[in-house]
Each structure stands twice: as C-alpha cells, then as structure tokens.
Amino acid sequence: MNYSSDPGVTRRELLASAAVSAAAVAAPSAAHAQSSLTGESSVSKISITVNGKEHELALDSRTTLLDALREHLHLTGSKKGCDHGQCGACTVIVEGRRINSCLTLAVMHDGDSVTTIEGLGTPENLHPMQAAFVKHDGYQCGYCTPGQICSAVAVLDEIETGIPSHVSDDLDDKPQLTATELRERMSGNICRCGAYSNIIEAITEVAGRRA
Amino acid sequence: MKSFTYEKARSPEDAAKAAAQAHDAKFIAGGTNLLDLMKLEIETPGHLIDVNGLALDKIEPTPEGGLRIGALVRNTDLASDRRVRQDYGVLSRALLAGASGQLRNKATTAGNLMQRTRCPYFYDTNQPCNKRSPGSGCAALGGFSRSHAIIGTSDACIATHPSDMAVAMRALDATVETVGPDGAKRKIPIAEFHTLPGTTPHIETTLAQGELITAVTLPKPVGGRHVYHKVRDRASYAFALVSVGAVIQPDGTGRVALGGVAHKPWRVEAAEAEMPNGARAVTEALLAGAKPTQQNAFKQSLVERTLGAVMAQARS
User: Fold this and answer.
1) Which residues have C-beta within 8 Å of that of residue B175, sequence separation ≥ 6?
2) Chain A residues with beta carbon closer than 8 angstroms to that of B100
3) Mean pLDDT over residues B41-65, rounded?
C-alpha cells in the first residue's frame, strides 16, 4: 500500500516528512510552552557510541536513552511501548547487557556503547536471530519485534555465561536451553499479538546453531 | 517529568553531602523505579545525584566469613555470584524471582531496598494516598485491596514492600552499611531498616536525609536448605501476592521471612520456635495480630500453604 503518488515513498518516510513540516509550524509555541511549564531545564553533553558510531549529543537531562536514540539519532527501530519498563519494546544492549532504554537517562550513559536493532543486522545481511524470526513468523504487527530480538540475542549470551534463572532447577548447573528457560528469560518482552510460541521456536533454532 | 539539575558524584561522602544540601535531591543508580515514578511526577526531585561512577560494585569476603555486597552490584550479578549461589541460595532465588532480565541487569542492591510500593493507588495521582501526599487519605482501605498488606498496617496505609531481595536479606540477617553527610558510617540491621506505615507512611526507611547506602553485608553462611517460594498472578514478571524466603536446617529448625504481606519484609523470630510443629503453628505465630481486609484475607491461608510447601521442599 502506498500513502502518496510516489510509489518509492514509504509510510515511515511520509510520516517523518509530515512531522518535520508540522514541527516547523509548531516549534516556536511548543518551545515556549515547555519553558513556561517546566522552568529551568538542565542540559548535559554526552558522547555515546551507537552501533559502532560515536555521537556527541547535548540533551535535556530528562531525555531517556530511548528518546535519545529515537528522537535525536533517528534510530526508530527501538520502540516506545509503555515507556515504564513493563513491555520490553525498548530493549537495547548497553555495554553487552540488555536493558529497558526507557528507564534510563541518556546522560547516565556518557561513554557507553549501545547496540540497537539497527546494529544487529541490515535488510541485506540479517542477524541470524532476525532471519529466524522471519522464518518462524515470530511476530504479527512487529511493534515488539526489535525489543524481542535484542532481548533474545542477549538471552543466549546470558545462558552461555551461566547466569541462572527462576526456573533453573539447580543454581550451580549450567542453564539448559529449554523452552521453559527461554520463556522465563523472555518474560520482560510482551507481545500483544501472542507470537510467543513462534518466538521461542526462532530463538531455539538460533541457539541450536550456536551450540 | 519535572526538570532537575544533575551531577555525577565523585565519592560516597560527596554524594551524601550534596544530597543533604538540597532538600529535594535524590540519588540515582539503576533508575528503574525512580525514573518510572518521575515520569508520573510521583517523584519530583529537583536535583539528581548519579552514584553509578562510585566504586561500590564489588562483592567481597568479610573478615567474619560473610560477604560484603557493594550498593551498586546489579541484581543479575548478585544472583549469579558463585558464593551467593552456593552459600546464600535464598538470596539468588529471591532475586531471580523478581522483575525481568532487563530490569535485573540495571537494578542495584541499594536501589532494590529503596524501591517504592506498587500499590495502584500510590501510582494513581487522581487518588488520595498518604504515602504520596501525606494527609490526603488512603484509597486502598475502601478500594481494591486484594494485593495489599495484612499485618503491620495502619489506618493511614496498607501498602506492601515489593522487594523479593529484601525478604531473603531479612532471613539472612543482613546489615545495611551507610555513610552520612558528615562522613559518619553506620550499620543498620535489616530488621531496623524498613519501617511500618503508622501515621507516616511516606517514611519507609530509617535513613536520614542525605544518608547513602554503600553496601549490604551478609553474616557467615548458616548452611541449611535455602528456598524462596513466590506466589503471584503470573508465572513470571509479577509482584508477589505472598512469598516465603526460608533457610531450613536438617533438624527442621530454621528462619522464615515473608514478602507481600507487610510494609516491610516480615519476620518474627519467636515464630521460628514453632518450626518443628509445622506450617500452621508457624503461620499463626507469624501472623498474630493480622488485620486483613475482606479482599486479602486469603493471604493468611496462602502463607500457611506456601510455607508448608517450602518446608516439604526443604525435607525432600
């Protein structure tokens, strides 16, 4: 489906250009509204490496890592679902660990290295987890998918490292790669379409390939 | 979110000093609870002191044969530490029963102790709440109270403390170490760290303004079977209706602490003398004086049954 007469324009590009023109009109009043509502706002400068590329940013200290990625670096793969750490759609990998990027301030990540879904693979060269999600139909609407995939990649590392989980029978044994383990470890990523069983199949396939 | 000024602390002492100077300052570490509450403007600090850079992220042996857990040790790292898994299994189990993988990677030991209640009326800024807005009343008392506290409550508040980790630490007789704005160090037994609501439910700990948690120490391991059993509405990623953290010795004696029933991890040492007499006897002593609402009275029998399951597991 096309949203303009130009078949080359995607829905996202169209929305982005619409947002830019709306922002151009609304910007002065919005800026005024913000300052009168919130008073003095502190600005912090940070240097952050995202998907291997270093960025210098000057941000309102209130900016979450998620908003820095989406609104300032225009990496819109990471999604804002609940914005309260309940859904996992914003999951990214920071310094090798998966976190909810909505529940951390960008200013707290000065000097950190972040991997988002855009850094895992490209449309031409999918990460194995991305390819497995496609193969096993691990989504319907796709909104939670970037978070699911970032989480899944980190989960396999966590199992590899020997981090136990709530369902591990023995705290001292190496965690098993079972569906029960994967479900427990993926419980911070909600999928309202209910693609859970296909997601587990996708992760299991990638885990098997690595083992 | 209200605007705030931000600084990175250079030392625990400097952090405590800075926090004492501004009445609306808050420490931030993992941020997983504080930022959530700041977005809802339930917490509105004017100044944030980021303590993440302080070197409080190690787990070290103590001269007494226990463990000293730095305030900034992440929940994932504490749960998977080899010494904690072997000697303090109830703590690993409690941590792993809480939150999600993403949150455990960020949440810290001190932050877990400091987290606020998940009472839905505390979160709903359209409702009265003595904890959020002292003197405004308690919407939970006449509202949906299925998840609320059954013991140690007051007419002002029936909220629970949401932590799993703290329940295990209570069973293990942990000690909270702090530094004050004047540089003075203090050791607070975990039993005296969290408070009951009384007439001041907005006060949740015995920390003074500006006092910063630097570590939690665990005494020498006591052996026994370590069990943490959490009962909740979902199999994962949900707060406890009732949880039981226990360390049980081969002769049937032991320690029991409860989560999900009070404003703090609930342990009554005298009740543990009843352990050889079974779960009902222990529960009666543990929950003597309970004042449940009609909606959460089920928690009393749920405690007994959960404890029964824990004692059976320890015998197996």
Assistant:
1) B187, B188, B189, B190, B216, B217, B219
2) 88, 187-189
3) 98
CB contact under 8 A, B3 and A62: yes
In this predicted model, what pLDDT tens digit does every residue of B219-250 receive, in sequence order?
999 999 999 999 999 999 999 999 999 999 99
CB A85 within 8 A of CB B32: yes
Put simply, the answer to whether B6 touches A107 (Cβ < 8 Å) is: yes
**B102, B233, B239: best mutation site toward chain A, by most A Cβ within 10 Å?**
B102
Chain A residue with minimum CA distance to B50: A108
| A chain contacts of residue B28, beta-carbon cutoff 8 Å | 105, 108
Q: Is B57 on the interface with A (CB under 8 A)?
A: no
Task: For chain B, report the end-to-end CA distance as a whole number of angstroms.
Answer: 51
DSSP structural state of residue B90: H
Name chain B contacts of A61, Cβ cutoff 8 Å: 3-6, 48
Contact B96 A165 (CB under 8 A): yes
Nearest one of A211, A210, A182 to A197, comparing CA atoms: A182
Which of A94, A166, A184 is the best residue to mutate to test the B interface, defined by the most B CB atoms within 10 Å of its own CB?
A: A166
Nearest to B52 by CA among B2, B6, B117: B6
Contacts with A109 (C-beta within 8 Å, 6 or more apart), sequence order: A46, A48, A65, A94
Per-residue b/e over B193-229, b at no fewer than 16 CB within 10 Å? bbbbbeeebeebbebeebbbbbbbbbeebbebbbbbb
Beta strand pairing call for B242-248 and B67-70: unpaired
State both tokens at A19. Answer: 């947002």
Q: How far apart are CA B280 and CA B286, in angstroms?
A: 10
A68-74 long-range contacts, Cβ below 8 Å, gap at least 24?
Answer: A68/A106, A69/A101, A69/A114, A69/A116
Give pLDDT, residue A93. Answer: 98
**Cβ under 8 Å to A: B residues 97-116:** 97, 99-103, 105-106
Terminal Cα-to-Cα distance of chain A (whole angstroms)? 41
Q: What is the pLDDT of residues B245-271, one digit of tens each?
A: 999 999 999 999 999 999 999 999 999
Distance CA A155, CA B257 (A): 31
Q: Which two tokens stand for residue B164?
A: 């799993």
A100 and B1: CB-CB below 8 Å? no
* Half-sphere CA count of B263, side-chain side, radius 13 A: 25
Residue of A83, A166, A188 with shortest CB distance to B39: A83
The pTM for the full model equals 0.93
| Cβ count near B121 (within 10 Å) | 26
Instruction: Tell me the pLDDT band of A209, cut-offs 50, 70 and 90.
Output: confident
Cβ of B236 within 8 Å of Cβ of A61? The answer is no
What ipTM was assigned to the predicted interfaces of this complex?
Answer: 0.97
Work out the minimum CA distance from A25 to partner chain B, whole angstroms. Answer: 25
Q: What is the pLDDT of residue A190?
A: 98
